[in-house]
């Protein structure tokens, strides 16, 4: 067994490789699973005889497929994410790396904080456990609500960092998963409370929404006098919103402002260091503006925040940026 906590699906992977007679195989891991990459590669190679290539690039989601690697192998497996149904990527198989963690100790804590009707949401590692969570809550007089999402969502209850269409209509939410980012996004998108049930930390907590809102307001205020903008477009297959970028540039011109569209595979301060603009507008992964804006020398705005800055949208109409 590669890991006691997460299922890397090796039996299915090996069966698929043999069935397709794949001679070269690509493996792509998010940073949190890269420490398992060598072991996974060794077992697959030993049991199939295939040549294995491991992607050393960062991987932030199913939107972030290593395209050069994909084109260099007969089949590629991406671990840790669910497929985005409306993205076509030939010869890529997604291994959701489901968690084996027993949620019962965590749920006994959760029933003490949630109300009698709560929306249930999760990420790829835990979304398969949501029916169990719903039944457990029902046994304790709590109605858990699970909803399906749009064409970008593979499973009911699944949330991405850029898409919350599977978030049900509820007064509050319980997010089963690690980290705070997804829960923050749901809270910002719905303006409702979100509890985080973290199976690895074995704790119930809330994300610091006010801290994020203060940072976003500060970014907007710093940009109010901006005259020049760099509109960022990612070339990653599931993040490229080129049409939106051109729409935003047209709005800038309409308001007498200077705007330029900048394409990059990775949106980093180093990649943008030579461009002298007053602010950037991010059309790539929303996480760049929410989580990483502090590392950039000028404010990084979401498309919606940009509209507020130039006067095309009112502050009261500010919403979370989502990719559909």
Secondary-structure element sequence?
HEHEHEEHEHEEHEEHEHEHEHEH
Order of adjacent strands in the largest pleated sheet: 6-5-7-8-9
The CATH architecture of the largest domain is 3-Layer(aba) Sandwich
CATH topology of the largest domain: Rossmann fold
Query: What about the largest sheet?
Result: 5 strands, mixed
- How many distinct domains? 3
Reading off the top of the CATH hierarchy, the class of the largest domain is best stated as Alpha Beta
The proportion of residues in beta strands is 15-25%
Q: Compute the number of helices.
A: 11
The helix/strand class is alpha/beta
Annotated CATH homologous superfamily of the largest domain: Diphthamide synthesis DPH1/DPH2 domain 3
In short:
This protein has 324 residues and is an alpha/beta fold. It has helices spanning 10-20, 37-48, 67-70, 104-110, 130-139, 181-190, 209-223, 242-254, 269-272, 287-291, 303-310; strands at residues 24-28, 51-54, 75-79, 92-95, 117-122, 143-145, 173-176, 194-198, 203-205, 228-234, 258-264, 279-282, 300-301. The protein folds into three domains: 10-95, 3-Layer(aba) Sandwich (Rossmann fold), CATH 3.40.50; 104-207, Rossmann fold, CATH 3.40.50; 211-317, Rossmann fold (3-Layer(aba) Sandwich), CATH 3.40.50.11860.
Fold blueprint:
Layout: H1 10-20, E1 24-28, H2 37-48, E2 51-54, H3 67-70, E3 75-79, E4 92-95, H4 104-110, E5 117-122, H5 130-139, E6 143-145, E7 173-176, H6 181-190, E8 194-198, E9 203-205, H7 209-223, E10 228-234, H8 242-254, E11 258-264, H9 269-272, E12 279-282, H10 287-291, E13 300-301, H11 303-310
Parallel strand pairs: 1-2, 1-3, 3-4, 5-6, 5-7, 7-8, 10-11, 10-12, 12-13
Antiparallel strand pairs: 8-9
């Amino acid at each position: 067994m590669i890991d006691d906590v997460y299922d890397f699906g090796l039996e299915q992977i090996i069966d698929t490789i043999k069935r397709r007679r794949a001679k070269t195989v690509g493996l792509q891991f998010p940073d949190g699973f890269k420490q398992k990459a060598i072991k996974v590669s060794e077992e697959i190679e030993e049991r199939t005889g295939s040549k294995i290539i491991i992607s050393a690039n960062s991987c932030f989601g199913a939107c972030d497929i290593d395209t050069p690697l994909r084109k260099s192998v007969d089949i590629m497996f991406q671990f840790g994410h669910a497929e985005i149904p409306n993205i076509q990527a030939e010869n890529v198989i997604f291994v959701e790396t489901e968690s084996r963690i027993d949620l019962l100790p965590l749920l006994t804590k959760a029933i003490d904080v949630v109300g009698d009707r709560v929306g249930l949401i999760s990420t790829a590692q835990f979304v398969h456990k949501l029916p169990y969570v719903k039944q457990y809550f029902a046994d304790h007089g709590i109605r858990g609500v699970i909803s399906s999402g749009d064409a970008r969502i593979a499973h009911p209850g699944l949330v991405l960092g850029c898409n919350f269409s599977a978030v049900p209509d509820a007064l509050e939410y319980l997010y089963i998963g690690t980290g705070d980012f997804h829960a923050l996004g749901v809270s910002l998108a719905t303006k409702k409370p979100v509890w985080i049930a973290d199976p690895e930390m074995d704790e119930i907590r809330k994300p610091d929404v006010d801290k994020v809102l203060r940072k976003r307001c500060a970014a907007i205020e710093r940009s109010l006098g901006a005259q020049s903008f760099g509109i960022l477009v990612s070339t990653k297959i599931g993040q490229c919103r080129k049409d939106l970028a051109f729409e935003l540039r047209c709005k800038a011109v309409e308001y007498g402002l200077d705007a330029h569209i900048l394409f990059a595979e990775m949106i980093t301060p180093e990649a943008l260091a030579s461009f002298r603009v007053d602010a950037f507008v991010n059309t790539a992964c929303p996480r760049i503006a929410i989580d990483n804006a502090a590392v950039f020398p000028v404010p990084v705005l979401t498309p919606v925040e940009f509209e507020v800055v130039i006067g095309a949208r009112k502050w009261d109409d500010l919403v979370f940026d989502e990719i559909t």
